[in-house]
Amino acid sequence: MNWDDAIKELDARREKALLGGGAAKIEKQHKIGKLTARERIEILLDKDTFVELDNFIESRIDDFDLDKRRVPGDGVVTGYGKIDGRQVFVASEDFTVIGGTLGEYHSFKITRIQDMAMEMKAPLICINDSGGARIEEGISSLSGYSGMFLRHTQASGMIPQIAVILGPCSGGACYAPAICDFIFMVKETSKMFITGPNVVKTVINEEVTVEELGGAMVHGVKSGVSHFTYDDERECLMGVRKLLCYLPGNWEEKPPVIKISGEESKNGIQRMLGRLNKNAGNAAKACTKLQKIVPDNSRHAYDVHEVLECIVDKNSFFEVQKDFAPNAVIGFGRMEGKSVGFVCNQPAVMGGSIDYHASDKMARFIRFCDCFNIPLITLVDVPAFLPGTKQEHNGIIRHGAKVLYAYSEATVPKITLIMRKAYGGAYIAMNSKEMGADLVFAWPIAEIAVMGADGAVNIAFKRKIKESYDPAAAKESYKKEYEKRFLNPYVAAARGYVNEVIKPEETRDKLLKALNGLKSKKVKNPQKKHGNIPL
Question: Which residues contact 255 (CB under 8 A, 6 or more apart)?
Answer without folding.
Answer: 246, 247, 248, 338, 339, 372, 373, 374
